[in-house]
Amino acid sequence: MIHDIIKPLAPSCEGWIGGDDVRHLMRSAFPLTAWSHPQLQLFVLSAVEVASDTDGVSRGPEYHLSVSKQYERGVPSRCSAEEGALVLQTFGGLDGWEEDNHVPNGNVRNYWRAVAENMVGRECACKETEHRVVEGDFEYRPLA
């Protein structure tokens, strides 16, 4: 049995349901929990991951929150920046989150924050080198 030292973040208020480890469903080697808030119609995947940046610099383990509106008629929709900020406050209230999306026309906002405090605030190198596309309050960098 594997025991995770660093746990995914969980919501700090009522209204959220879930919290089950779904790494087996998502084929993830990292801890991954799923949450939904029926009243707000938000869906969140909360994980702890080690991501590789294009510059080769590792920030070590990072909290990763993927936020979207719940599926409507089989199609997910994008949450607003305001709803994303609400989720960040609800899931730990930590400062230093970076929104970094790489899926063109994506329906998920991806937020990253280093677990180690001395690594917080280091942005992904892609933000300096990759083309940025803006759609309202959502921005992404297309994959090459």
Quick structural gist:
This protein is mainly beta and 144 residues long.
In words, what does this structure look like?
The chain has 144 residues and is mainly beta. It has one domain. Helix content is 12%, strand content 33%. The protein is built from 3 helices and 9 strands; from the N terminus they run E-H-E-E-E-E-H-E-E-H-E-E. The strands form 2 sheets. Strands 1, 2, 3, 4, 5, 6 and 7 form a 7-stranded antiparallel beta sheet that branches. Strand 4 (62-72) and strand 5 form a beta hairpin. The longest helix has 10 residues, at 81-90. It is globular. The protein starts with 16 loop residues before the first strand and ends with a strand.
